[in-house]
Amino acid sequence: MVPVTALITPNPDPQGLFEGTSRDWMFFVPHDPYGLIALPGQKDFAARMIDYCLNDTWFNDNQYVAPYLLYYAGVQNQGQRIIRNVWVPLFQDGVMYEGVKPKIPHNGWQTHYTGNSGWLMCSMLGLFPLQAPAGQFLISSPSLTKATIHTGKKDLILQTSRHSDGDIYVRKVRIDGKIYPCYVIPARRLASGARIELEMGSDLTQGLGPLYVSSSDGWVLDAELSSDSHLKCTVEAPVLEATTKICSRTRPVKVMINGQEYQDWGYNATEHTTTVRIADKAQIEVLLE
User: Fold this and answer.
1) pTM, 2 dp
2) 198, CA 20 to 30 Å: which among 4, 11, 59, 177?
3) Positive or negative: CA dihedral 243, 244, 248, 254
4) Cα–Cα dist 288/144, whole Å
5) What is the pLDDT of residues 228-277, one digit of tens each?
């Protein structure tokens, strides 16, 4: 039997692991990010993931999702900063690499690896496909000021305002002219065509406002603000249950599921996050007053 300590090694192909070390693989359960973050061994997940993204990733296969997992940890802006200012600039002149480290100088193999092109395109657009669940996209900081995707039906148009080197964080989302208080959107909604407008800002500490959906491992079919203190969203669980995290600057006075008051929700005062779990498909309402 090989001792456990023998498997923890900087060798990129150690016995028992493939193309990575324990440092790489300890993070990657992208289909269950909330379960991953809740594990006892994942203390200080956000800080450790940020360090990993900045110092240890080498753009091999599943590592592309690393900064996007920060959304599930409640630090969406940190993920946007890494994607916009660190990772995307590495792929200059359309050259794709595996082995590049996001550190100057770029010590790595610099192996031509065209599989990175999909990650780069989605990250530059500010729409990235998630694994939790599959069929949902996450809205991030785009490198482009405007893009049009011809879907064969209605065009999908993405456009930014206040777009500059300093204004790199998504501050407000509008879809077809209506405020959309959410970072995630299902692929089925994009496939039907839409106009997505992103207002950008420079403050790392802000999100999308005092009340918005920050992440979910279910399909967020719609999200709207009835008022600044009343959010509604419809979430569909891909299997048995879905967890949705809603950023609320103050503790809600009431949470409702399908029109009925709901008691089994939690609020983290440090992270200003309300957590709601639903089965099947349900409308969630969060009221701050």
Assistant:
1) 0.88
2) 59
3) negative
4) 35
5) 999 999 999 998 899 999 999 899 999 999 999 999 999 999 999 999 99
132-174, pLDDT tens digit by residue?
A: 899 999 999 999 999 999 988 789 999 999 888 899 999 999 9
Homologous superfamily of 220-289: Golgi alpha-mannosidase II (2.60.40.1180)
CB 211 within 8 A of CB 225: yes
Bridge partners, 281 (sequence order): 236
Residue range(s) of every CATH 3.30.2080 domain in the chain: 4-208
CATH tag for 4-208 (out of 2.60.40, 2.30.110, 3.10.50, 3.30.2080): 3.30.2080
Q: What is the CA 115 to chain-centroid distance, rounded?
A: 20
CB 137 within 8 A of CB 184: yes
